[in-house]
Amino acid sequence: MDALPVVVIAGRPNVGKSTIFNRLVGRRQALVADTPGVTRDRKEGQATVRGRAIRIIDTAGLEEAAPDTLYGRMRASSESAVADADLVLFCIDARSGLTPADEHFANWLRRQGRPVLLVANKAEGRQGAAAAMEAFSLGLGTPLAISAEHGEGVADLMSEIADRLPPTDLPPVQKATRRTRREQAEGEEEDVRPPGPLRLAIVGRPNAGKSTLLNRLLGEERMITGPEPGLTRDSIAVMLHDDQGPIQLVDTAGLRRKARIDETLEKMSVSASIEALKMAEVVILVLDATLGVHEQDLQIARLIEREGRCCVLALNKWDAVEDRAATRQAIKDRIETSLAQMRGIPVVAFSAMTGAGINKLLPTVRRAYDIWNRRVATGALNRWFEMMIERHPPPLVDGRRLKLRYVTQAKARPPTFIVFGTRTDQLPEDYQRYLVNGLRETFDLPGTPIRLLLRASSNPYAKS
């Protein structure tokens, strides 16, 4: 995605930049609300214009503010995106007309030396198109009147983008992808396609240091950070590479208890975070080590387990912990007591602010991913199964002993096993836990969710 031409959407707050972004990428990827300043971090997506893939970046609203303030940090992030752009879509609100802020940032854009396409959004109907002509005075060329909310003029916008980007040949990767799709249509195997990146989500409560962690892993100030809780509102995906290949890293908004979520915008942010968690393969649950394990942290961990994702527990702000041995033991005890279904979950302690210990995180993520993908040979599995039954036979139910015949692994991601026998629907939960713990210990499956499914053998003498 880094080699694609970059189109950056810029403008003052509440002119409809995120709505334009969603129209261009073809789905509701960015949060949209009738509130200024919804977008804070740069949001990236991919669009196709005239058969050519391009990279679209939605930015925070441009505002005059001191550098050390939140809005100052948001503006610095937007300016950084503009500096790398092949084309800037400078958006204004045709409905409200030009403002001094529009004129100020138009002058600033001219000094950046980047190609600019002036977009007058919210120009519904004839009156809106006539009002858009006022933007001629900005000196950025002919304004393109559109209404992103209603879809008016979006096709013209995509055509203008294609005209203004430098010409280039179709990248070889795209040609290969097209050949693969034709081959698949003719019945070729699905696995001829190259594997995608590992999908990794960073989740946790507000102000645990998730965005600081992402910036530390990337080695740049990609996300806006600060002492204010809840800075991240949308789920932001970026690409990262380690020694073993690409990683799609997603930073998410902080997850609070439902009872404390009031505003519509925060509900949207939480929904985006949960959706990112569901789409991930590995989830990093970030905890503030100075506060220990909170009940909300445990609720998030249980959600990760229910979704069948593998989890790495990240103890951030480790440099601020005074008694590290006692803190680590207290966290370990709480996890073993409250998260028995994730026994052996890997724990990494570090400081995202200083970078101390951060080098252990991605190798731990890779190991957790390998365990999540692990398969056990059927022969070894059934030898283990016989040993477990001999050591601790199934209990009597209604005066009759349950007969468990054999076990097989149905799939990985997460490891899922099926036990076959008679009247398995009556197998007590404590015996199921006995089998799951035995699987975890014998076949080295620490921390990953394990699914145990029960299948009863059919009785040929039963009346239909």
Automatic annotation (TrEMBL):
GO MF annotation terms: GTP binding
Name of the featured protein: GTPase Der
Keywords of the record: GTP-binding, Nucleotide-binding, Repeat, Ribosome biogenesis
Residue span of region Disordered: 164-199
Function statement: GTPase that plays an essential role in the late steps of ribosome biogenesis.
Subunit structure: Associates with the 50S ribosomal subunit.
CDD domains: EngA1 (cd01894), EngA2 (cd01895)
The encoding gene: engA
Positions contributing to GTP 2 binding: 204-211, 251-255, 316-319
PROSITE patterns xrefs: G_ENGA (PS51712)
Keyword Repeat: yes
Family in the record: Belongs to the TRAFAC class TrmE-Era-EngA-EngB-Septin-like GTPase superfamily. EngA (Der) GTPase family.
InterPro entries in alphabetical order: G_ENGA (IPR031166), GTP-bd (IPR006073), GTPase_Der (IPR016484), KH_dom-like (IPR032859), KH_dom-like_a/b (IPR015946), P-loop_NTPase (IPR027417), Small_GTP-bd (IPR005225)
NCBIfam families: GTPase_EngA, small_GTP
Binding-site list for GTP 1: 11-18, 58-62, 121-124
Residues in EngA-type G domain copies: 5-169, 198-373
GO biological process, one term: ribosome biogenesis
Key word GTP-binding present: yes
